Amino acid sequence: MADTANTNAWLPALKAAFPLTIPICLGFLFLGASYGILMGTKGFSFVWPMCMSAFIFAGSMEFVTVNLLLSAFNPLAGFLLALMVNARHLFYGLSMLGKFKGLGWKRPYLIFGMCDETFAINSTAKIPAGIDRSWFYFWVTLCNQLYWVTGATLGGLIGAHLPFNTDGLDFVLTALFLAIFLDQWLAGKHRERLSAVIGVLTSLACLLIFGANDFMIPSMIAMLILFVALRPHLDVLRPAADAPEATADRAMSHAADQQKEGQTR
């Protein structure tokens, strides 16, 4: 009886969650395969991208980790870089505290697996009546991670055996960030682009001061300080209708943009 009741809970939740993850599947398989191929061309076994995608599960950081593994051992720089690249997840977690409350053994995994796209679905989806909320969140999270792990593993398997030149493949993440940046730039109004201008100018200044090999962390720290200091002025420049009411709302908007970009890919 207990097994039947458990099946009656997770199976309908899977049927409700899976269709919402299909657009994510297409983007994750492509990007995950690109990451796996990149690891393969750098001489790593497919086991590396498979395990890293399973235990790190932070796409942008996994691409960055490729160069970290090939450079001099510097755990402090790696820690700071990972913290800055994934700092947005702090706001994701704050906004999901209520939704994840009382979910038992699923809660730790839901926290671990909360990427941009998973957050976008779980934070906005209207769960049908009769569907177990904890299982719905669980299946969305697990499906999205399986897509990424599958893509990375397949890419790693074929990466070392590709017959064509893969020079420039490591630019795929830069191209992705550039596409997202341009999409948000074109969608925003002139006075809403100040934060983007600050980010670009700060990066260029740190590039000139620290050089191409060491500018990443200083530029991220400088941008964080500037955005915190200028936040009241940046909020004033934004139209009242578009101004976020809370940090969690800004996180949801950012994640929705990430999901839209994944569907476009």
UniProtKB/TrEMBL annotation:
Major localization listed first in the record, in broad terms: membrane
UniProt name for this protein: Branched-chain amino acid transport
Pfam families, sorted: AzlC
UniProt key word Methyltransferase: no
Membrane-spanning parts: 20-39, 46-70, 76-97, 136-162, 168-187, 194-210
Regions annotated as coiled coil: none
UniProt record similarity statement: Belongs to the AzlC family.
Subcellular location: Cell membrane
InterPro entries membership: Brnchd-chn_aa_trnsp_permease (IPR011606)
Bilayer topology term: Multi-pass membrane protein
